[in-house]
Amino acid sequence: MTQTSETQREGRLLRNVLFTFFVSGAASQPLGSFIPFLRDTYGFSYDLSGVLLSCQSIGNLLAVLAAGFLPVYLGRRRSILTTAVWMAAGYLIFASGMGTPVLLILACLMTGIARGGNSNFANTMISTLPGDKATRGYNLLHGCFAVGALLSPLLLIFCAGRWPGLGWRIMAGLLCLLCISQLVVYARMPLPPEYAKKSITSVDLRFFKVKQFWLGAAMLFFYISTEYAIVGWLVTYFQDIGVLDPNQSQMMNSLLWLVIFLGRMVGAVITGKLSRSKLLLLDGVGLFSFFLVMFFSRTPAPIILGLVGVGFFMATIYPTAFAFGSDCIRGNDLGCSVMIFTGSAGGILTPAMVGFVAERAGIRAGMGLIVVFAALLLFSILLSVFSVRAAQALPEKGE
Fold it and tell me: What is the pLDDT of residues 247-305, one digit of tens each?
């Protein structure tokens, strides 16, 4: 393959991956916005709502683990089709109005399986791009995810206002159709070369011994713990404390993802101009500080200010932390899978923990847990940054 044709293939791959991850963002995030409708329609408790959110995370975790091995045996295309199809199936259950806890738990597991498969595949494909193109690609990738997550609540507000009581199910039907279009793109995507030998023994496992890989995975663990809890409980929190009405609470979800999108576009622009370590430190301190502002405020203005700050400083943590830890796993499906798996484990714990505490001590106490995880995220960033700086200083001391 000539250099020109390879560059064209990479460009087509990037465009296709950005679209599929946009769909993933649009379809992965509405679950948090659906929770108030599910509670109103079926009378769910905080406990069950937290379980539903965590079930999506469990499905995500299982898919991420499987996605590290499936491409070795099935090939990348059949693997992503095998996992992505469950998003459409899950939203078909939501749209049908079958509201039994078992079916809804299955639907959340299905959306989680698809989300995990989409995430592992997209990040692996971006990791095959060369140099700064990969780092910029990560920011664009997660920017497209943010656009999808931003637009979904707005469409949900429109549907719920236009068809009261039925709008959220219509929204689920539209997402089902969007997920089908994603499958079509996956089936036609120009993929890079795969393993010559389809055996797990052919996979490079050296990344397991690289400290930077595990530091990146630790940051992802605490980041996803914090993000999933914020996104999953944000709408319910604002409604239940009485600061914002239901429509305003849904708008806050869109505002959060709008700011995340803008932040990721800023991240794509400053790639190469600001070191990863400095960007991570700035993001960690900013996220923790603004979440405290949002959590301790009791009136709309400072709450919105805190939310904007949280979104902006959240924006580049995931792509930067992933790039930080992925230097040693370029194009390695298993390496990407292990990193995302480690990070995604946090997404199982916090939504359920917030729901458990909220059921017994109130929603504000439940959200207080996120303060703890945001602090642990900041600590993991500090540990990663200073560990890398210490490693870089060792050769200098030896000279």
Answer: 888 888 889 988 988 888 888 788 777 888 888 999 999 999 999 999 998 889 999 99
Please report how the helices 46-67 and 30-42 are oriented relative to each other, as an axis angle in degrees rounded to 10.
140
| Contact by Cβ (8 Å): 328, 345 | no
Which contacts of 305-309 are long-range, i.e. CB under 8 A and separated by 24 or more positions?
A: 307/234, 307/252, 307/255, 307/256, 307/259, 308/255, 308/259
Q: Determine the residue type at 154.
A: L
Residue 166's identity, in one-letter code, is L
Q: What is the pTM of this model?
A: 0.73
User: What does each C-alpha distance from 326 to 119, 138, 239, 329, 340 come to in angstroms?
Assistant: 14, 11, 39, 5, 11
1-25 tens-digit pLDDT: 566 677 888 889 999 999 999 999 9
Q: What share of the chain is helix, strand, coil (3-state, %, to 5)?
A: 85, 0, 15
Tokens of 307: 């939310």
Rounded CA-CA distance 129/216 in Å is 19
Q: 197: how many CB neighbours lie within 10 A of its CB? A: 9
Distance, CA of 72 to CA of 79 (rounded, Å): 9
Nearest CA-CA partner of 174 in 195, 190, 159: 159
CA 238 to the chain's CA centroid: 22
Task: Give Dmax over CA atoms of the chain in angstroms.
Answer: 72
Cα 17 from Cα 9, distance rounded (Å): 12
Query: Quick one: CA dihedral 112, 117, 118, 124, positive or negative?
Result: positive
Give the amino acid at 251.
M
- Residue 135 backbone phi and psi in degrees, to 5: -60, -45
Q: Which two tokens stand for residue 364?
A: 């504000």
Residues 6+ apart with CB under 8 A from 310: 230, 256, 287, 290, 291, 294
The Cα 305–Cα 290 span in angstroms is 8
Which candidate, 24, 34, 23, 28, places its Cα nearest to that of 235? 34
Residue 260 and residue 265: Cα distance in Å, rounded? 9
Cα–Cα nearest to 336, from 349, 326, 347: 326
Cα–Cα distance measured from residue 28 to residue 23, given in angstroms and rounded to the nearest whole number: 8
- Residues 56 and 31: beta-carbon distance below 8 Å: yes
